Amino acid sequence: MAIKRITQLDQETLAQLVAIWLKTNQEAHPFIASDYWVKNELMVKNQLPQATLFVSFDGAEVTGFLGLQDAYVAGLFIKKAHQGSGLGKALLEAAKKESSTLTLAVYEKNERAMQFYLSQGFQLVKVQLDEETGEKEAILEWHRA
Predict the structure, then answer these.
(1) What is the total count of domains within the chain?
(2) What are the CA-CA distances from residue 59 to residues 34, 55, 91, 123, 139 (Å)?
(3) DSSP 3-state of 143
(4) How many CB atoms are closer than 10 A to CB 104?
(5) Residue 9 φ/ψ, nearest 5 degrees
(6) CA 100 to the chain's CA centroid
(7) pTM for this structure?
């Protein structure tokens, strides 16, 4: 398993990233209508090339990725078959090397993700309402010691 920092996205990798983004969001957020994610797919496809991307590969297959916009973790997505393997931690560690502070938002109902980020040194800053989904999201921050 190799993790690469990608600055230039080819169309094949972009297609794999979008597919992982869509599927993992639908799986991790059963409390949000599936079509919400489908409606946002094109926006994400347009935003991904502008983010700093850490992508894990198994050969040519993308197994997961983390998108960073400045010091904001826009998302961490791991294919279901690779979840729980340490890949999320490895991608997060790569992002931590880029910045002394990281911020992210995670839905409160996504307890698995909440516990993961808290176990990785993130701390709860505040809880707010995501206007688009009507769900509460936790804003978490990590600071290099």
Answers:
(1) 1
(2) 30, 12, 17, 35, 34
(3) strand
(4) 23
(5) -95, 130
(6) 18
(7) 0.94
